[in-house]
Amino acid sequence: xxxxxxxxxxxxxxxxxxxxxxxxxxxxxxxxxxxxxxxxxxxxxxxxxxxxxxxxxxxxxxxxxxxxxxxxxxxxxxxxxxxxxxxxxxxxxxxxxxxxxxxxxxxxxxxxxxxxxxxxxxxxxxxxxxxxxxxxxxxxxxxxxxxxxxxxxxxxxxxxxxxxxxxxxxxxxxxxxxxxxxxxxxxxxxxxxxxxxxxxxxxxxxxxxxxxxxxxxxxxxxxxxxxxxxxxxxxxxxxxxxxxxxxxxxxxxxxxxxxxxxxxxxxxxxxxxxxxxxxxxxxxxxxxxxxxxxxxxxxxxxxxxxxxxxxxxxxxxxxxxxxxxxxxx
Length: 329
Description:
The chain is α+β, with helices and mostly antiparallel strands. The protein has helices at residues 5-11, 21-31, 54-58, 68-71, 78-82, 111-121, 141-150, 156-159, 173-183, 201-230, 235-241, 253-260, 263-269, 276-293, 303-319, 325-328; strands at residues 2-4, 34-37, 48-53, 125-129, 135-140, 160-161, 166-168, 185-189, 195-200. The strands form 3 sheets. The chain has a 3-stranded antiparallel β-sheet. A 3-stranded antiparallel β-sheet has the order 4-5-6. It is elongated. The termini are far apart.
């Protein structure tokens, strides 16, 4: 069977790939001996995948055994492995929430209505779009100031500016950034030609913070966690969890959990004030958030998920402080 990743998700009632959808679909497929080629957990949602028997995907015959590393793999790690690297697809304009929402005014409304709407929502620009969806231009505070300066009639028609840029919703985001910086905003055009959104410099700053903050926090969590564990556990400890791993730096979050979920190994860590079960529970929740974050098309993290990352990294900073120049001296 061949179908798009989007269609595959919809068959389970999901819209996006996250810590709930990926493990569930993978578990259901695996339970009946199936998988997808390429892996449905990576790549754009419009990419087509083929559902095949697991033995075919691995290139081996049915009944052929696997090596020790595969045999000992926890099925719960499958989703984590699928998103073990940062997204391999470029971020597009439509990945920004503001690209799918636009407040506008019609040509037959008044300038005072336009100004009132801009003040109400804190906008610096307002597209003028008629009932048929045709774009007539943009009203901006600069265009309003211009008609004041030139003594023209104070009406909406005089304030409509043609100085704007339009980008396609499917365009790659990075090449569009210089245009947004130069013009302070761009209008977003959907595949059907309608203006469906507006991206401003302020929007971009807010969106970048929303997208980037979890990545940087998770990166710090993994870096500090690896340093803490790497100071204590050698290759013999690591290989009790996974025979193919040679150091803590090669492990994944699920393997960190199995490494620490042993009383003797936990005691070696030397954190007497931290409850092992509580810490492992937090680590499991962080792992789930990580798997969600690794997809740009996943929903924005909830405040409680962001708080979890912040509190967890704060805990790790106590056991892995940065000494800066002192340690380098």
